Amino acid sequence: MHELSLCQSIQGIVDRARDGRPVATVHLRVGRLRQVVPETLSYCWGLVTEAGPLAGSVLDVDHVPVVLDCRDCGERTTVADALLLTCGACGSGAIRVASGEELLVTSIDLAPRGPTAPATTPTTHTAEED
Ligand SMILES: [Zn+2]
Q1: In this structure, is residue 10 part of a structural domain?
Q2: Which of 17, 55, 90, 121, CA to CA, is 20 to 30 A from 98?
Q3: Long-range CB contacts (within 8 A, 24+) of 115-119
Q4: Residue 64 belongs to some domain of the structure
Q5: What is the pLDDT of residues 60-115, one digit of tens each?
Q6: Angle at 35 between CA 90 and CA 24, to 5 degrees
Q7: Which structural domain range is residue 30 located in?
Q8: Has residue 106 been placed in a domain?
């Protein structure tokens, strides 16, 4: 499954970036040309992260529309149908994809540490001297 392998690579990226810290939300930018089904992506994320330190984290997907630059008329158009890549202005097939192919982890929201897992750094300021 396409989404499953995507989730595995996302997990790898997030796991390196989180540096041992708990993660609440992973923000992604996914181009329409990636043909990703959002529901399937979320479902696969749950499967992939189920047993690991990322369990319970969620994906927040920002879908990037397909934008084409036309080599014939020079217009930049956004297409609704990612399967029909022709210029929206003149219909030419001589196009360059300006956006819609991205698959990026843009940011990660870290989860607050729970009260059962206090920070290990000792505090140097105390209001209880005396
Ligand atoms: Zn055109």
Answers
A1: yes
A2: 17
A3: none
A4: yes
A5: 999 999 999 999 999 999 987 767 899 999 999 999 999 999 999 999 999 987 65
A6: 130
A7: 2-110
A8: yes
Residue 84 lies in a domain: yes
Ligand 1 centroid to residue 34 C-alpha, Å: 23
**75 CA to centre of ligand 1 in angstroms:** 5
| Residue 116 DSSP one-character state | T
Total Cβ atoms within 10 A of residue 44: 22
Spatial distance between the Cα atoms of 105 and 14, rounded to a whole number of angstroms:
8
Distance 87 CA to ligand 1 centre (A): 5
Residues in the chain: 130
Report which residue type is found at 94. Answer: A
Task: Calculate how far, in angstroms, residue 86's C-alpha sits from the geometric centre of ligand 1.
Answer: 8
Q: Which residue has the higher pLDDT, 122 or 104?
A: 104
Q: How far is the CA of 63 from the centre of ligand 1 (A)?
A: 24
- Dist. CA 42 → ligand 1 center (Å): 36
Q: Tell me the mean pLDDT in the region 121-130.
A: 52
What gap in Å lies between CA 101 and CA 44, rounded to an integer? Answer: 20
The predicted structure's pLDDT at residue 113 = 72
Q: CATH no. for residue 88?
A: 3.30.2320.80
